[in-house]
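Re: weekly structure request thread

Next one in the queue (330 aa):
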Amino acid sequence: MTTPEDNQKVIAKYFKPQEISALKVLGSRLIITLNAKEDEALAEALKQELTQINPDKKVSVVFVSQKKEAENLPSKWRVKGVKHIIAVASGKGGVGKSTTSVNLALALANLNLKVALFDADIYGPSVPMMLGYGKTPPVSYDGKTFEPFMECSIKSMSIGSMISDDTALIWRGAKACGAIEQLLTQTNWGEIDVMVIDMPPGTGDIQITMSQKIDFSGAVIVSTPQDIALIDAIKGINLFNKIGVPVLGVIENMSYYICEKCGHRAEIFGHAGAEKTAQKYGIDFLGEIPLHYDIRSNADSGTPIVQSAPDSPYAKAYENIARKIAQKLK
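Done, posted below.
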């Protein structure tokens, strides 16, 4: 059995010890982050040798700049008390990312973990509606920090509780990131095992800044099965890979529909596209979430399916995915 020390010895053949920033094993992936000048030939040779001694792992080599100042990379935000932060992201909107984030957070809480949910989808925040606290403003006892909402056994925070439904946030990236930083770092989260961050859709300036400034343990990509969504999901995968955030896996949302009357299964948006994409890029496929009226209606009414119908097959689908993610974070 290959040990971390074995891998370190191989890496030391190609790069100096001070150039090795991190060596992580996440499920079926072995990720080496190097604080060195990018060298594709050396990286490929390193990958081949590590693959030989880790035949069950997909090896990735990620380079980061030796001088953060030279590339204007921002310093990390401090989120006190939180052990692991995972991003739930998508390359485009309309794939059910926020509904997935909420139900995934609840499913992780059902595993006896202390869970927080942060709504960073700043232009279309929906977590307050899905968790049932709507436009209730957050409490601040000292005028400097916020107290998180506690609903459905998880802590959460969202700018959506502070603005009206018809307010358009006409903010450029810097101002939006400033608001996200303030809410995230000035909330009294307490002790949290896993924080789920519902990311804004896309791969623009806000997503890049957040990926650089937050110490993510990993990212989860949500996509529907059709090709147009998968094209954008691949962009999301590439974004996290370039920045050095491990991609924990891909979820196929709205995977299929089962007729309640006749039991016929209809693959409305196609099927297994996300799984095939995950296989192509050497990423774990975390599971399928069906398209069902109850998932949508319960989210809209502030009673997410995992909380309101924990024994339903739809809740179980989220819980199966949560178990896989929790295992990767150990």
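The CA atoms of residues 91 and 232 lie 4 Å apart. The chain is about 35% helix and 20% strand.
Next request, please.
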